[in-house]
Amino acid sequence: MSNIAIFGAGSWGTALAQSFASYGHQVSLWARNIDQVAKMNDNRVNAHYLPGIRLHDNIRFTADVNDTVGVDYSIIAVPTQAQRQFLADHRDRFSGQEPLINVAKGLEASSGKRLSDIYNEVLGDVDQRYVVLYGPSHAEEVGRNMPTVLVAAAHDEALAAKVQQDLMNENLRLYTTDDVTGVELGGALKNIIALAIGMTVGLGYGDNARAALMTRGLAEITRLGVKSGANPLTFLGLTGVGDLIVTCTSGHSRNRTAGVQLGQGRTLDDVLAHMGMVVEGVPTTRAAYERAKELGISMPIVSHMYEVLFNAADVNQAALALMTRSGKSEQEDYLN
Ligand SMILES: NC(=O)C1=CN([C@@H]2O[C@H](COP(=O)(O)OP(=O)(O)OC[C@H]3O[C@@H](n4cnc5c(N)ncnc54)[C@H](OP(=O)(O)O)[C@@H]3O)[C@@H](O)[C@H]2O)C=CC1
Ligand SMILES: O=C(CO)COP(=O)(O)O
Q: Locate the Glycerol-3-phosphate dehydrogenase NAD-dependent C-terminal domain: which residues (predicted)?
């Protein structure tokens, strides 16, 4: 059994803590808010982020990152836009040898960068310690030990295999890959499509529109991914089509929920102010839009999402513009 530190006691960090603790691992769950730590200690529940679940006795709570030195694995579940600063603030804490497992899904809005790039920039070259653990997985289910299948991606295949061997349990199956780029892009970009799908729900569009958005969204994700050096097959896997399906179809999804509210006519500021949880697809839309421009890739859904989110474009007009693009060949258009 392993000693695991999890940084970020939002819904995902807490759910993973519960899953690992339930199967015998010792988990330290770090939150920045000392009052939240005290409440979790007293009540053994994360009332805001994962209500209704009694947290396992193998989890200890802390607000001190240095209280977690010497663990076998550090798992970082702080939202994407906060990770650069979080790592910089605690650079010494992360200067050890243990694997660093990132579970946040997104691209940095200010730079368009993937999280593996940010880790290397802030902590020095940590490619040999870096793992990304993604897949179709809502916290509300993982926290209740409902069957879930993820992918551990690492440049060092032996490290991915060690994570698989150490952390897999009967309700959390892990696959491995060395395609860090593909896994990071699939996990980040599906949130944009889930926002778009939510909008179609809010607008009263039908199942046909949603199936089309998922399929053509996957084409855009694959296009950006392949141009960035990813293996195209990764986008047919758990962290591509798998995560796209769960996020676009589940009532648990924060991105889809935000999209529904936007489709119903609420403003972005209002939706984000009342969500109470992170909506990664919003900043990632900005990042993906800029990356697509830099790389010269056509990403029409992402471009229209950018206009709707940040330039107050009308969502019905955006849908019409997508429907009336010039005719294309499906296969020829897939990677071009
Ligand atoms: N929820 C899910 O089902 C899944 C989420 N993910 C990914 O995990 C990541 C975290 O998401 P999730 O747990 O859902 O988010 P939540 O909104 O549930 O929680 C966010 C957590 O991050 C903390 N936080 C916010 N800003 C900072 C900061 N600057 N420094 C340190 N901590 C900070 C919050 O603390 P505070 O309360 O003090 O603000 C809170 O504990 C996201 O990238 C998401 O895409 C991946 C798979 C599944
Ligand atoms: O990544 C997720 C599911 O795999 C969570 O998606 P949301 O952030 O939209 O809830």
A: 179-318
